[in-house]
Amino acid sequence: MDDSFTNTNGVSIIFKMIKDIQDNKQYLSDIDGQIGDGDHGINMNKGFTLCEEKLKEAPVNLSEGLKILSNILMMKIGGSMGPLYGLFFKAMAKESEGKEVINADVFQTMLVAIPVELSKVSKATPGDKTLMDCLIPAVAAYQEAIATGESFKSALMKMKNAAVAGRDSTKDMISKVGRSSRLGERSIGVIDAGSASCCIIFCAIADAIFELLN
Amino acid sequence: MDDSFTNTNGVSIIFKMIKDIQDNKQYLSDIDGQIGDGDHGINMNKGFTLCEEKLKEAPVNLSEGLKILSNILMMKIGGSMGPLYGLFFKAMAKESEGKEVINADVFQTMLVAIPVELSKVSKATPGDKTLMDCLIPAVAAYQEAIATGESFKSALMKMKNAAVAGRDSTKDMISKVGRSSRLGERSIGVIDAGSASCCIIFCAIADAIFELLN
Amino acid sequence: MLEGFAASMSSLIDTTENPRVLKLKDAPIKNKVGVVTGGGSGHKPAFIGYIGKNLCDAVAVGEIFSSPPAQMFYDAFKAADAGSGVACLYGNYAGDNMNVAMAIEMAKDDGIVVKTVVANDDVPSAPKDRRENRRGVAGEVLMWKVGGARAAMGGSLDEVINAAQKAIDNTRSVGIGLSPCTIPEVGHPNFQIEAGKMEVGIGHHGEPGMEVADLEPARKMAQRMIDIIIPDLPFVEKDDVVVLISGLGSTPPSELFIFFNDVKRILDEKKISVFKSYIGNYFTSLEMCGITLTMMKVDDELKKCIAYPCESWGLTQF
Amino acid sequence: MLEGFAASMSSLIDTTENPRVLKLKDAPIKNKVGVVTGGGSGHKPAFIGYIGKNLCDAVAVGEIFSSPPAQMFYDAFKAADAGSGVACLYGNYAGDNMNVAMAIEMAKDDGIVVKTVVANDDVPSAPKDRRENRRGVAGEVLMWKVGGARAAMGGSLDEVINAAQKAIDNTRSVGIGLSPCTIPEVGHPNFQIEAGKMEVGIGHHGEPGMEVADLEPARKMAQRMIDIIIPDLPFVEKDDVVVLISGLGSTPPSELFIFFNDVKRILDEKKISVFKSYIGNYFTSLEMCGITLTMMKVDDELKKCIAYPCESWGLTQF
Ligand SMILES: Nc1ncnc2c1ncn2[C@@H]1O[C@H](COP(=O)(O)OP(=O)(O)O)[C@@H](O)[C@H]1O
Ligand SMILES: Nc1ncnc2c1ncn2[C@@H]1O[C@H](COP(=O)(O)OP(=O)(O)O)[C@@H](O)[C@H]1O
Ligand SMILES: [Mg+2]
Ligand SMILES: [Mg+2]
Ligand SMILES: [Mg+2]
Ligand SMILES: [Mg+2]
Question: Which of C20, C178, C241, C257 best tests the D interface by mutation, with the highest count of D CBs <10 A?
């Protein structure tokens, strides 16, 4: 039982994400406020909290939980974050659907599907100072670890580290996409809010899986 | 010929007033700008210059000139200054009309008629920081000088001095009437623009009459 | 400016020989009483925005915050008069009173009959027992709406004057200022409002109000303003009223609607029913930030006049 | 805010089950194509000010400068659809594109047919060969006017879509910003414009323009803006055009008319004739100071649609 968990138990990943986003509401808004419009924490918290309420209605497994989260983000949260994170979790839901057990390989397909789905609506690439700067290296680090034969846990640890490094890399970037792009050079010096929330999400996922694997 | 002048020659008073108002256009706007809306010089110059043009059409005597000036101010200059100075010169015109010779007594009736006429449209009294603070003491000083047997010239000199003192007295007043009244205490420290133009007019009248009496 | 305005509204508005007097294209309209107003500029859409069908026929446009000279009012009378007389509906300011009075004298010589209604709806500008000293503010819009409609319905000069007078007699206004305005020629604000404070009862040129109070939420502001105007008329249970809420220039429209919502709630409680509401920038003070609340109690005649269609830059309704 | 708006316009506007979706009282109107729009707020009178007779039937209202979620667009579609289909006429922004696309998928399941026109009239936001990347700005008002009128005339969904598409294809806009705006939640301006400078080609949320230039008089600004939009369509001699000049929030209306006068003079020289002009605050950006110039070349169909009467808070014409 050391290298997989059940879809049923996997729902704990959802609750961990909800908690960590809620705990970081103010932090996310504060960094968005420095070069954006200061509502990123509000937007994310709103979506994840609506999901929390929905989950109280009936027990779900990981795939169902991801689908609910995706739908709420897409339907209830405006701007571009609703659709972007909505598709993020839609990809994960789709690839895990029907899988009773989630192992390192299944999780890899879930991860890899995210950038594919997002590319349908966002043209942002790493270097643009968006959540892509966290997402792309995090997924790549996990893939590389698995490819070189590392364990599920070890690959998750690599993913987490890459997410943090990716988030931090946005600090020195000039924003090229979204609201902060109009600041040009003045956008340097602050972490991108979307990369910060993306990092919180990857860390939450990794931490929740660690618990499940122990 | 030492104590009177003809209505015909008296038209020089009009030209002297026009010139002095024109010369002080900037000054009047500047002081109005400190506690008012900065257009008093513009308003006065506009009226007196329109009058100058009108006077080029045909020669007039003092009474006719005063009437033209009055009409132009009343008809073409807006705000309350047009009507106020319009009535000011209307009073002087009316009392001098038909008088071939203007002596100290005729001039006194001309002066005394001004505050009577103005009181029909303005409730301002001395102390309100308006042109009344120049007008009322100037007229009173002239009357008093004549009552105590002084000469026309001497009475005019008293009038002039009182006009200057009246103007200066507005510096320490709190404005109670017109635009500057909304400044309350902050209106202290600046001469009232209307009292300054009124002083220019009294000085111009006195100076022109001195010339006529010599 | 006036040229551009007339050009942009060329199907409705015409210039006149006096460059500071604009008129309705069709004016003077045969067998109709002419409706005229005028005043200093800086109050857009007032005054030119209310030249229009079933509103004002001609308007005299003074300099910023400065009454137009008598000549302009006179020229506006001439542009509006079709022989049925002119109703001059204007606001109670010293300069306007003097200049209109002189213009009427001039018009008399031409045989033009002019009668006036002087708006004095601004409650805080004088106590009730000296109501004749009160200034005219946004209530003027309702006075023009009523007078204009009554004239369009074929009213005689006296009928138009009586309707407009009834309109303003049943109208009360109060304003609150949050930030000052600057006359461009002067270049600095012509009064100050401290940050976090508001001037209750401010006039349309920044005239000081009755009180400087701490800034408060729309709900409290609505209550405060209603408490000033309701007892003054007084407005009572079962009254039908027109509510006009105007921004003073730079107030975001969304705040006007938030404010209206609070006003409506209080009026509902008092069982005063809103016959019609006008929310927007109807009478401004350059770029001042603030709000005016105007209420007019309406009877059947006033209702008919308010409901009457009209067309102008500032106010168009079917 | 929306509650107050609906209450103040209660004869025309209704709330819906979704508190962020407002609709025309009469909507859905039998046998009429529903016209829907939506977008972030902060652009008053857009978008809610264009819910009205012969204009939009329902509107989805996002947070300030933030696209409404898919659910809202979907609810607006439902509020507007009478079975004849829905024309969703909105502006080209990433969030709106995504959310509208998702809402259309949702509507499909209900059998509601939705077609879209995406306004992209803002010339400086992308070069001509990437016109599909251009943002929608004040030209959206003309798109709604035309689409709304075409629907009111009984047009089929395709006819409404074609007319609105023709409208926007023949429309070009450019904006100039003189001072920035502040999203209240953030509390500081979301971009800077140096004193004495202007941002040529600024977007409706303060997106940077093509150039920062020294402030210049209205006459030169008019020339500069016309030089940007005229060659792009191009507008040529003998064209009939609609001109829409909108303040961006805190621009004094008088400056809009001065500006129009200069535009008109240049168009006269070019023998381009102004069929109709709209001057006022039609599409703002919170309290930004600045101006947008929009021109639409009109043929007979577009003329008919523009001349068609309509009634709403933002635009009423006989
Ligand atoms: N096109 C895009 N692709 C990827 N990420 C984007 C895109 N646009 C914006 N973002 C991300 O969205 C974040 C801001 O989100 P949020 O504040 O919720 O939305 P908004 O900018 O509408 O206020 C940015 O920090 C950035 O990471
Ligand atoms: N009611 C009044 N009675 C007497 N003088 C007045 C009155 N109102 C204003 N004034 C005078 O008018 C002067 C301002 O004139 P001016 O600047 O031309 O007019 P405005 O205030 O309309 O811009 C003030 O300095 C004051 O002396
Ligand atoms: Mg944000
Ligand atoms: Mg002045
Ligand atoms: Mg003045
Ligand atoms: Mg936002």
Answer: C257
